[in-house]
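Notes from the pairing session

We agreed to fold both candidates in a single pass and log them together. This is the raw record for the first candidate, unedited. Please don't reformat it; downstream parsing expects exactly this layout.

Candidate A
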Amino acid sequence: MTPDTATVELLRNHQRVFVVGLGPATSLVDLLEIRLTRSARHVIPLRTYGRDILEPLLLMTKDDLLIAFGFRRVNPYLKIVLEQANRRGASVILITDTLGELYGKNATVVLSARRGPVSAFHSMTVPMTIVNSLLLALSAADQERIMGKLDELDEMREDLLRLEKTGHSSK
């Protein structure tokens, strides 16, 4: 699977990325938080239920990107996040199985992630493949910048390892 250029450019051209996913989709939020941070993006994860999901939305602007995961049924938390992104003019990548028709009007791009029949076990394999494809495509498109950040990360890891070996850790 190769993501289209427009979707990759959305990722490439936004420095701050909000990522919303609840329930089992929090694993996808965690993956994107780690990998996009390594790609020099400021990631704001939204993985909580209730009112706690609202405060970070105050920071969202038209210069931001929202990556939203929505699976199987209508969720009031996803709905409010999508509405706020639209109200604030943020771009939206929606990754969903069955909610594209319902929420698609709120998204700049909708990526279909079929996870099996409604009555069957729903795997995260397809959404995870989509996320990994997006991340690999971003790495290819923004290789110089991302490789520089990964080199920085390697240097920090080496510094930490050196400090741990000399007994300067906080243990």
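Candidate B (folded immediately after A)
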Amino acid sequence: MLTVILLVYVCYLQYNAKRTVIVNAQTVLENYQGFKEAQDLFEIRTNEMKETFEKQKKIYESKSNELEIISSKLSNQEMVVKKGELEVLKAKTIQLGKAIEDKVAMQEEELLQGVYNKINDFVKRYAENNDIDLIEGITSSGNIMYASDAIDITQDIIEGLNIEYVEGVTE
């Protein structure tokens, strides 16, 4: 009788056991097609902004070189005016560089937040659909020191995310 009670209790514990799995967060990010494409688009936009800055910088450098060449032919008053114009152009160039830097940082933050939101949404649905109580994320900073491969669902997450990215969300 005690054996039957013990057997029923063990079955009850197994049935109600919490299921915990792990996901390598960096591997998911590196292999998620949505992140790769967003990263490519970000790089294109960033390069366009850098080109705009480089054009402005070349204009400033050209005007500065021009002033050096013609400075001996200018009067003191003309020289003061030209230097003032050059300082304004320099300030505009610096201001453009700062604005581009800020915009790049903001776009990067938006890109990452959008990707993280999609991944987190997928992981939540994956857990709910697979009766998982806890998904731990492995990071390079070492929150989890060791986990068995048997509980690693990283590849399932990558495959599911990429299918969903191509085909859309199906519920």
